[in-house]
Structure formats: structure tokens, C-alpha cells
UniProtKB/TrEMBL annotation:
Gene3D superfamilies: 3.10.450.50. This is Nuclear transport factor 2 family protein. InterPro entries: NTF2-like_dom_sf (IPR032710), SnoaL-like (IPR037401). It holds the Pfam family SnoaL_2. Residues 20-123 form the SnoaL-like domain.
Amino acid sequence: MKSVEKERNTMTFPAMPKAVHQFYAGSQAADADLWAGAFAENGLFHDPVGSEPIRGREAILARLRKVIPQFDPFLGITPVDAYTTGSQTAVHWRGAVVTTDGKPVNWSGISVFRLDEDGLIAELWAYFHHGVFTAQLGDSEH
């Protein structure tokens, strides 16, 4: 019989490089420092693709610290499938949050990660329909 502690440590994510796993673990923990810490110091975050990228770990951290408190709870982004070739990983994911006024917001997409020589995220492209996300916010101010 497994102990409760051992069950809590069971990996539920698909196998991914350490920094990619940290990205999703930070998201699900609503931990901006852990989440942004997966990026290289000069990492780029295209969120979503087509928008101006967020440049550098500190700017990414500032954005996450601004976004997370706008939701309660911030349930995070859950990887569904992951595919890695060399220094690149593509992940199909689902996201879920609840606005502070109680509206559930669900969205999904695919992210492509490029890792640097240290195994940190050098560049991340998040592909999702931003309009689907914002339409669910309704009149919520986010």
C-alpha cells in the first residue's frame, strides 16, 4: 500500500525537459518566481504568438506577478502531451482560471519551447486563440 506522501509525489505530467516541467509546475502552483525561473535571463515569451514578446526573465516575472492575482483561484496550465526533439519541445496544454467575480475561464493551445545550452527556456511561443480567452472574461476587468 502506497503512503499518502508517496502518492503526492507521483508525476502526473508527460515526460518533459526540466525547465519545461518547471514552467507548468510554477503555473499550477501560481508561483510566479518558480514559473519565471524556468526562463533564461534573456528569455523571450511570445504570449500569445503574434503579440509583442515579453523580453527577459525579470519582465516575465513582473507580468506573471500582475496576472496571477487577477484570478481566484488561478488553476494554471496543465500539459496534456509533450514531444521533444533536440533542444525543442512542443506541448499541447489546457488552462483554467476563475475570475475574482466567479467566472470560469478555460482555454487550450500548443506551446513550443526552445531551450538554451543550460537547459533553460530561451524562447517560448504560445499558440492559442486569445479571443476565446478574453470572451470568457466578459465584463471582468483583467
